[in-house]
Amino acid sequence: MIKVALNGYGTIGKRVANAIMLQPDMKLIGIAKTSPNYEAFVAQKMGINIYVPQESVKSFDEAGIKVAGNIEDMVKEADIVVDATPNGVGAQYKELYQKFSKNAIFQGGEKANVADVSFSSLCNYNEAIGKKYIRVVSCNTTALLRTICTLNKLSKVEKVRATIVRRAADPKEVKKGPINALVPDPASVPSHHAKDVNTVLKDLDIITMAVIAPTTYMHMHLLNVTLKSQVSKEDVISQFLNTSRFLLVRGKSKVNSTAEIIEVARDLGRIRNDVPEVVIFEDSIYTKGNEVFLMYAVHQESIVVPENIDAIRASLDLASAEDSIKITNTSLNIGK
Ligand code: NAD
Asked: Which domain holds residue 78?
């Protein structure tokens, strides 16, 4: 059993922690929290060991939350750390992971140079095998990479032009906006997502544009992909149907929006309404010669969870890409 520690128990961290607990080859030794907030209370209720900075022990004690030790103790005990702290904080923790010679998985909010490799399970698992520091790219980049690498198996992807409609905030974030505007983000083109895709697919010709929209549920991507050869709509549909981590929804079933996708997740009783799959609107798939057009939705809170689990296996060379993806999918009920 691989001992995994989780530093930064927020939107991504709590989901990765849950996922680690569901893996047959991993054990969650604990999480690190800095403040004794509701997330710490819930973690305690779930029987998870909570580690805190030395100076915070008193405030956790006063809040009635049992502390298992300080963050250094947690890192020392682990075989690998998943760092899901806020943007840029992970880079500050790298020194601690290095001090105890521990492998670490970072998130997309960190700069690419925090790690030896930026990671996407379907694109470059093999490149990440044995790497001490791996960065799982952001939610939007994960969706783009999954989609591009899947189409690339059908016919070589020569060019990608993508428009990203981004959720303004995660559901728990009360201070973010806008609540009544569409905001180009950034106003200039390309957005940073193209550059992030190029951290994994170095030579790909990709341009992205992004707009922030007042919604919390999911992002939406509008893609135009040029392939080396001509493909049919049926080819594209069967390629996605035969690749895990995608779901296709049809207008006929009345799932025509991000709200309805989340409602289906609720009805299925999925934990936290999570949808780690890229959800493709099947009716949007259109082909013209070498070009493919499609629209899909991305659940920003959960899409990177399976990739974090695969990154742990890649870093410690525990399984092949195929085996890891299979174990992760089965344990997390992906595609069900
Ligand atoms: P978050 O704010 O929800 O969670 C971060 C957690 O880290 C919080 O619980 C916070 O209390 C804790 N924390 C803060 N400072 C800390 C410290 N010094 N030591 C330990 N813990 C500390 O953030 P998030 O949305 O989960 O984002 C985490 C990372 O995941 C970022 O790199 C982000 O870019 C990336 N990411 C976020 C999303 C998303 O949509 N939320 C999607 C993909 C990737």
From this structure: 2-137+304-331
